[in-house]
Amino acid sequence: MYLPTAQLHQATTLAKASKLLQRFGSTARLLAGGTDLLVDLKAKRVSVDHIISINRIADLKGVTLEAESLRIGALVTITELDEEVAVREHYPAIIDATQSMAVRQVRNLATVGGNLASAVPCADLPPVFVALHATALLWSPNGERVLPLEQFFLGARRTARRDDEILTGVGIPKASPAFGAAYVRFGLREGNAIAVAAVAASVQLDGDGAIEDARVVLGAVSPIPKLATNASDALLGSQPTDDLFAKVAELATAEADPITDVRGSAAFRRELVGVLTARALTKAVGRARKEDR
After folding, report:
1. Number of domains the chain is built from
2. Does 159 lie in the same domain as 71?
3. Which residue from 203, 74, 68 is spatially nearest to 131, judged by alpha carbons?
4. Rounded CA separation 123/218 (Å)
5. Are 51 and 29 in contact (CB under 8 A)?
6. How far is the CA of 98 from the CAs of 80, 125, 222, 253, in angstroms?
7. Could you tell me the residue range of the domain that residue 249 belongs to?
8. CATH number at residue 250
9. 2 found inside a domain
10. Cβ distance 47 to 4 under 8 Å?
């Protein structure tokens, strides 16, 4: 397979990239690491006349731990994210995802922004970030728009990004001492396998150890990373127990909307959701109690 002919543009500022997007409209795509876009072009899943490289835009790089949040630039690679000390210390659920993503060579190129903006249903970072109450940071000439990440995804390969906007990164609130989150997935093999099903979970415990806030987010079993509201709400006000997690796992299974493909049947994926939900919640509570990293 060969790359189709397209004109390459190099943008060194957000303003230049935005102007190019507005100029070429639907005939253009942004290029960061290229691990999704170039494959899609070769496979003829997308067709474009213009490719806008944003790799030299400094505003899209770096991880910053601020007083109330963690800001992750869109051009941060999966390897950089995995090796970031602030992430490893304060957000171990992200490491759950980065450690399971592709192979080293791909992680060295793939970017956080690309993993989100591609809006592929089986992507690993979106469920984790939604569980962590992340926001999408979108820049346009009119200023920055901050959008809860669960509202960023509209469908498979569709997002709420406007034509003149660029995803500059994500913001994640600072985790409180009694907060824990985890991500678990099932793939058919190690290495470059994509998720057949995945679950991210987060819990906030109160002073008595009961769950006062929780999120259960399903990956690869819905067109978008699905915030399972029934499952999440069923956790509130209760002490964490295996029986509770079993009940919540059933609710999460009912909220899944999987398809059947070469990687597994819809029934198999639903079964996985139940198992993975209980595992993710157990791990998240362990981290909230500082029993598990």
Report:
1. 3
2. yes
3. 203
4. 11
5. yes
6. 10, 8, 21, 25
7. 179-288
8. 3.30.390.50
9. no
10. yes
- Torsion angle, CA of 276/189/227/230, rounded to 10 degrees? -30
Q: What is the tens place of the pLDDT at every residue in 82-92?
A: 999 999 999 99
- Look at residue 293 and tell me if it is in a domain: no
Q: What is the DSSP letter of 145?
A: E
Q: How confident is the model at residue 1 (pLDDT cuts 50, 70, 90)?
A: low
- Pairing state of beta strands 197-205 and 143-148? unpaired
Give the total residue count for the chain.
293
The residue type of 16 is: K
**Boundary (domain end) residue, out of 173, 201, 219:** 173
Final residue of a structural domain among 173, 202, 233: 173
CATH number at residue 137: 3.30.465.10
User: Does residue 264 lie within any of the structural domains?
Assistant: yes
Could you tell me the CA-to-CA distances from 61 to 18, 54, 127, 168 in Å, in that order?
17, 11, 22, 9
| Domain assignment present for 77 | yes
- Under the banding of pLDDT at 50, 70 and 90, the label for residue 190 is low
Q: Which residue has the higher pLDDT, 93 or 293?
A: 93
In single-letter form, the type of residue at position 62 comes to G
Question: HSE on the CB side for 262, CA within 13 Å?
Answer: 2
Is pLDDT of 143 > 70? yes
For residue 183, the one-letter residue type is: Y
- How far is it, in rounded angstroms, from Cα 198 to Cα 196? 7
CATH number of the CATH domain containing 30: 3.30.43.10
Tokens encoding 78: 């999966």
